[in-house]
Amino acid sequence: MEIRVLRYFLETAREGNMTRAAERLFISQPTMSKQLKELENELGTKLFIRSNYNIRLTEAGMLLRERAEDILSLVDKTEAEFKSLEEINSGDIYIGAPESEAMSLFADIVCKLQKDHPKIRCNIYSGNMQDVCEKLDKGLLDFAIVLNYVDLTKYNCLPMSTKDNWGVIFRNDDILSKKKSFSISDLRDLPLICSKQWADHELPDWFEYNLKDVNIVATYNLPYNGAIMAKAGIGYAIMLDKLVNTGNDSDIIFRPLKEAPKAEMFIIWKKNQVFTPIADLLIERLKESFGQV
Fold first, then answer.
1. Which structural domain, as residue segments, surrounds residue 9?
2. Residue ranges in the chain whose pLDDT is less than 70
3. pLDDT tens digits, one per residue of 245-292
4. Domain boundary residue among 78, 105, 140?
5. Among 85, 160, 237, 265, fewest CB within 10 Å belongs to which?
6. Helix (H) or strand (E) holding 161
7. From residue 232, how far is each of 26, 40, 115, 186, 228 by CA, in Å?
8. Domain count across the chain
9. At what angle do helices 3-15 and 29-43 cross, to 10 degrees?
């Protein structure tokens, strides 16, 4: 399986049309068709369902698309790393992070580093904790910012000097809007909106009563979507503070959870990771900033 052919396949999958994909890659349509047919023969399965006007992926094609995106991202990242091995003043750094105020601390450090080395490019991948760790494990990311319920023994880790507060977000015209804070027991009878990770990791530790009694009406991947559901009145969103607008001009408000433990944030990277010079320099700056020198 050739990298070049994977690029042909991925472009065709994105365009849904072989002719347009061939034009974008500056090759002829017959060449594209021949290469993709040989790829199907090599894998022993059909990747496309063809019609007169477009093509769509088979189930096998959807699997290959997912794999091809990771493979090509890793190839491109590796090529860039080799180009920057001898050049400390430039290069790409790849960071994965959930939405958290801790990202602002990281951004400040990167900003200072870029002032000294202006050719550095910082690439941010936003996703939930599982997505971020999977990409870190595959080598698609250099660093990740995670909450403390990730298995930190698998990685080198650096605690950040920040702890985020858990709370409840809901409509400001709600009957409970006069409450200044919530206790864990208050959540028992409320329709809750939460992230899948919170339900899997935090909720069993927080609630002393039967988890089957917890009324989770919706889950979200990123806080913005959770806030949209809270704004619509679907329920009460459990999330960290300062991730969405809950100010005086907003239709939703934030109330802290008094008994909830604060969310500790860590920067992690793979053990025995070989970094480019600029990534090594970033680690030094991170350790200086968070008192680990």
1. 3-78
2. 81, 83-90, 209-211, 291-293
3. 898 889 999 999 988 888 888 999 988 887 878 888 888 888 888 866
4. 78
5. 85
6. strand 155-164
7. 47, 47, 43, 21, 6
8. 3
9. 110
